[in-house]
Design a protein that fits this description.
single chain, about 55% helix, globular, about 200 residues, three-stranded antiparallel sheet, Tetrahydropterin Synthase, Chain A, two-stranded antiparallel ribbon, 5 strands, Helicase, Ruva Protein, domain 3, alpha+beta
């Protein structure tokens, strides 16, 4: 099937992926834009997995102050090269992640960062709650696991629904960016300040 330039432009407009990647995705998808979007998404996830072992020592620190002036965030976003760190796309991602931290107030970057004693304490609290509901033991364990996932999606930045598209998690947005940019991207650290909060 012949892919025309308009299809390639449209897919590039939707994804920001390089022209050749858009063309290949459209060819693979038989010209179907929706299928081509999935092909590019899968490619992004594959690139992210392949790049996960690499070191990301370059990057940017962004500051975001909410329009009310009552919440501020400093966030470090890392990548592999200084070249990528200077691109508008990378800086825009860092800004969006800082907005995410301001809006959703995560405590940790990933679930691996949550101290084991905090996870254990949360499990015990959830187990007591589930048992108070009068459920059988096997149902209690399922309830605890389900609620624990909710806990992670609240306190861990990478597990949170992305504020600009709640169908995606933050980690999916970063994986897509890695697919487009072709480098490892990782949140280094963040600090959130809110007036009146400790």
């Amino acid at each position: 099937m012949s892919i025309n330039a308009e299809q390639v432009k449209e897919l590039r407009r939707l994804t920001g992926a390089p022209m050749m990647d858009c063309k290949k995705a459209l060819e693979k998808a038989g010209g179907d834009i929706q299928k081509a979007l999935n092909v590019l998404k899968e490619k992004g996830i594959a690139v992210a997995a392949k790049r996960s072992a690499r070191e990301a020592k370059e990057g940017v620190v962004v500051a975001y102050i909410h329009h009310s002036g009552r919440i501020g965030v400093l966030l470090e976003l890392n990548c592999e090269t200084d070249f990528v760190a200077r691109t508008e796309e990378f800086k825009a991602l860092a800004h969006e992640l800082a907005m995410q931290v301001a809006a959703m107030a995560p405590t940790y970057i990933s679930r691996e960062d949550v101290p084991p004693d905090v996870v254990q304490q949360e499990k015990e609290t959830l187990r007591k709650w589930a048992e108070s509901q009068g459920r059988p033991p096997q149902a209690v364990e399922k309830m605890v696991e389900g609620k624990l996932e909710n806990f992670f999606s609240t306190v861990c930045l990478l597990e949170q629904p992305f504020i600009k598209d709640e169908e995606k998690k933050v980690k999916d947005v970063i994986a897509e960016a890695m697919g487009k940019i072709g480098e490892k991207i990782a949140v280094g650290r963040f600090t959130r300040y809110a007036v009146g909060e400790e």
